[in-house]
Specification:
six-stranded antiparallel β-sheet; 2 domains; 58% helix; Phosphatase 2c, domain 1; 17 helices; disordered C terminus
Length: 560
């Protein structure tokens, strides 16, 4: 940052030189057209005096800038130990106002001094025109005020990038001012110039006994209009640009941009924009503390929710089970469970609670508890689902609903009973075939009298059952395109059958799009794989004998 220090001083030099030359130009034009001073007289004395004023003004302001901004220059030279951030910020904020009053003071001193010297060295015949000198001093003071406002605007604009780079933690209160002050001062000074120029012209022409040129008088008054308009546009544009920074930060915060929770709005002035920035930072600190508290609660809820879910890898007899549950937020509404019913039977469920976030997570926890209670009472998949539905209807009272699929595996009969309450149809992966298991009814929580049916699927060695939630097939890629069932089935067909269930689940998740934050639904996948030993497979084939199954999925009635 050391190179910024001389660059900043060079910018200030050009700024002071440009504003001073503008003021000298205005005075010269006034001397020619209003005071009637010839070019020869200007070359002999007035231009030399103006050159002295411009050069002395630039030197004085440059020295004053170096003195007042010394902490800033040290900070830019990568020496923050010699220039605390709070001191740097105060100097940068206060410096435009300081230079405003410095320019006013410079005009108050230089202009009267110039006219006093001019009065003393002028010829005796010209010393009776005291009123002309007084009016000229008044006009030049008004011009100095206008240049001071120009100083204030340009210096504030020049220093703004440096203020934006400063941290603003701890800046809460400061001496306040109003944006209306420079606006009012610029308006008053421009009005005075617009009035004094034609007035001075009329008085001089009248005293000389000549006729007043109305067009000349109007042109004097109108000559200040472009500059005044430019000054007002600079003030308005500066105020607008600073407000837009605040608006952008607020909109980012509303969109959930977490980066703004730890960032602070730069305080760029002492007027209403700066005060709004301070208020925004106070609100931001409050929101940050509140959000941190919510995050701690959500983290605790996540830990509790994860403890309710079974391990991601499971083995029951000859069955290998792997699962993955990915909530889009800290907690979610997807659920799964694996529970042993007796020594031969175990149940696997996959479910999805309507909604997202904490409400869905609370319902998800309740559904797990209710399912475990109903499952231990025994019964088929459809019976468990019917009892569970009545409990859910009584609990939710129609405010939310739950889709749920239950698969009960019987290791002795080598069958799977499956019943569904509006849940996604699972898949049976047998060899190279990917077969969907159609079975569905209304979701839980809608009607207490809903009846549920089930299907019975014979289980063969190396069969894989895949349960999932809608967040899997409805996932969006970077182009906003949904995965869909066809693409999902292609992903299933590409799985390596020789790999473990957990490895296949991991490979499947890698094939699904992450969407970079555009996916808003949780997703859960459970794979149940039947891996029987070679001797058991041979014995099963011998005892099976003549039995043939035309369709791997049979209704319970047909199986009976």
């Amino acid at each position: 940052m050391s190179s910024h220090s001389p660059r900043l001083m060079w910018k200030f030099f050009l700024l002071y030189l440009g504003v001073s030359l503008y003021g000298a130009t205005v005075i010269t034009v006034g001397n020619i057209f209003v005071n009637g001073i010839s070019l020869e007289e200007l070359r002999q004395y007035s231009l030399k005096a103006l050159f002295f004023q411009v050069s002395s003004g630039v030197i004085i302001f440059q020295i004053l800038t170096f003195i007042r901004l010394r902490p800033v220059l040290r900070y830019l030279q990568s020496r923050p130990d010699q220039a605390p951030v709070s001191l740097v910020w105060k100097r940068l904020i206060s410096f435009p106002t300081e230079m405003f009053w410095g320019m006013v003071l410079f005009g108050l001193v230089v202009s009267p001094l110039y006219h006093i010297i001019d009065y003393l060295i002028s010829e005796p015949s010209h010393r009776d025109l005291l009123w002309e000198n007084a009016l000229a001093i008044l006009y030049e003071q008004t011009l100095s005020l206008t240049l001071a406002i120009l100083f204030f605007i340009l210096i504030r604009r020049l220093l703004r990038p440096y203020i934006l780079r400063l941290p603003t933690e701890g800046i809460r209160e400061f001496p306040r001012s109003s944006f209306l002050r420079p606006l009012l001062l610029s308006f008053v000074s421009l009005m005075l110039i617009a009035i004094l120029l034609p007035t001075f012209y009329v008085l001089r022409i009248t005293a000389a006994g000549a006729q007043v040129d109305v067009r000349m008088m109007v042109s004097f008054a109108g000559s200040t209009l472009p500059f005044g308009l430019t000054l007002f546009l600079l003030l308005g544009w500066q105020f607008r640009s600073e407000v837009e920074v605040l608006i952008s930060a607020i909109l980012s915060l509303l969109k959930g941009d977490r980066a703004w929770l730890d960032r602070r709005m730069p305080i760029m002035s002492r007027d209403e924009v700066g005060q709004l920035g301070v208020a925004f930072n106070k609100l931001q600190e409050h929101l940050s503390r509140w959000y941190q508290g919510i995050e701690r609660e959500l983290q605790l809820a996540y830990q509790v929710q994860q403890k309710l879910l079974p391990p991601s890898s499971h083995q029951i007899g000859d069955y290998r089970i792997a699962a993955v549950c990915q909530p889009t937020r800290e907690v979610g509404g997807d659920l799964y469970d694996i529970i042993s019913l007796n020594e031969n039977r175990f149940a696997v469920i996959s479910g999805d609670v309507s909604g997202h976030g904490m409400p869905a997570a609370l319902i998800m926890s309740a559904i797990l508890v209710l399912f475990r209670t109903e499952a231990r009472l025994g019964g088929s998949a459809e019976e468990i689902l019917s009892r569970l539905n009545r409990s859910v209807v009584q609990t939710l009272q129609g405010d939310m609903m739950v889709t749920l699929g239950i698969g009960i595996f019987d290791q002795q009969k080598n069958i799977c009973e499956y019943a569904s309450a509006g849940h996604m149809a699972p898949y049976l992966l047998r060899g190279d075939q990917v077969t969907q298991i159609p079975c569905s009814s209304l979701p839980l929580g809608i009607s207490k009298d809903e009846t549920y049916c089930q299907v019975v699927i014979p289980v063969q060695p190396d069969d894989r059952f895949l349960f999932y939630t809608d967040g899997v097939v409805e996932a969006l890629n970077d182009n906003g395109e949904m995965v869909g069932f066809q693409e999902f089935e292609r992903c299933l067909s590409r799985l390596n059958r020789a790999a473990s269930a957990q490895e296949q689940i991991d490979a499947l998740v890698r094939q699904l799009p992450e969407g970079h934050g555009i996916n808003k639904d949780d997703r859960t996948i459970i794979m149940v794989e039947y891996k029987k030993s070679a001797d058991a497979v041979k014995s099963q084939r011998e005892t099976a004998g003549q039995r043939k199954t035309a369709d791997p999925i049979e209704s319970e009635r047909d199986a009976g």
